[in-house]
Amino acid sequence: MMKKIVFLGCGSMGEAILSGMLAAGTLPSAVTVTVRRPERAHELATRHGVTALASNEEPGANAEAVAGASVVILGVKPVGIIDLCREIADALPGDAVVVSVAAAVSLAQMEAALHPGQPVVRSMPNTPLKVGRGVVALSAGTAADEHHLAAAHEIFDGSGVVLDVPEDQQNAVSAISGSGPAYAFYLAEAMAAAAEGFGLSPQIAQILARETVAGAGIMLAEPGANATELRRAVTSPNGTTEQAIASFDRDGLPAIIETGAQAAAARAAQITAELAAPN
């Protein structure tokens, strides 16, 4: 059971995780958050009742925060993860599990920056975490056992679906669920543009596209829902929807989506290599 959880960096994703744990009742009584600006620290302390430190005022805030921690969440940008690991390495309890929410930073890179044997878990959450509909993929490091992985699950369980995957599948996860919300928003943009092309007002076009994509998402979230079956249910033979789907197939829309996902995964691998390159 977690005695103390620490968020090192708490932007929108970190705050979404924090809010999810609060809603699920899984947040321990001892919670410390570090951010750069004192204004943000005050905001988080007031809103969530946590201890919040500002590193701009307290240069040693990160090392101070992790003392006695059970779980430490690394919520800074990928480019800052390794330096942060080095900064806190000496202050971390040996059994504290370090959970990264940064894309592209490998377990090996984090483990090399921490003391040998430090448990590390790599996660890939997505932005619907903010509304309790996220999906999170977890990969355990060499020193992380089932108890450490269970602690990582507990962090995210209140905000969405949590899956365990081998680390070599993390870039694929990033390309589908990590970037995926942007694909859905892109679809809504295209639908709204098509609606305007029919002469509908921009306001009505936006409402039609937004509510249709959101409503379809809710249907997909129903237990046992299957995208193929749902699509077939609204695609009547010789009907209007069938003509649209046939047009999408002729234009190669599935292949376009696959190519885009492959490009996203390739970029994630490239970022990992860039972060590993010596300065």
TrEMBL record:
Name the record gives this protein: Pyrroline-5-carboxylate reductase
Function description: Catalyzes the reduction of 1-pyrroline-5-carboxylate (PCA) to L-proline.
Localization per record: Cytoplasm
UniProt keyword annotation of Cell division present: no
PANTHER family cross-referenced by the UniProt entry: PYRROLINE-5-CARBOXYLATE REDUCTASE (PTHR11645), PYRROLINE-5-CARBOXYLATE REDUCTASE 3 (PTHR11645:SF0)
Keywords assigned by UniProt, alphabetized: Amino-acid biosynthesis, Cytoplasm, NADP, Oxidoreductase, Proline biosynthesis
Annotated ranges, domain Pyrroline-5-carboxylate reductase dimerisation: 167-270
Lineage: Bacteria, Bacillati, Actinomycetota, Actinomycetes, Micrococcales
Pfam families the UniProt entry points to: F420_oxidored, P5CR_dimer
Entries under HAMAP family matching the protein: P5C_reductase (MF_01925)
Top EC class, one word: oxidoreductase
Domain Pyrroline-5-carboxylate reductase catalytic N-terminal: 4-103
Assigned EC number: 1.5.1.2
GO molecular function (one): pyrroline-5-carboxylate reductase activity
Pathway stated in the Swiss-Prot or TrEMBL entry: Amino-acid biosynthesis; L-proline biosynthesis; L-proline from L-glutamate 5-semialdehyde: step 1/1
The keyword Amino-acid biosynthesis is assigned to this record: yes
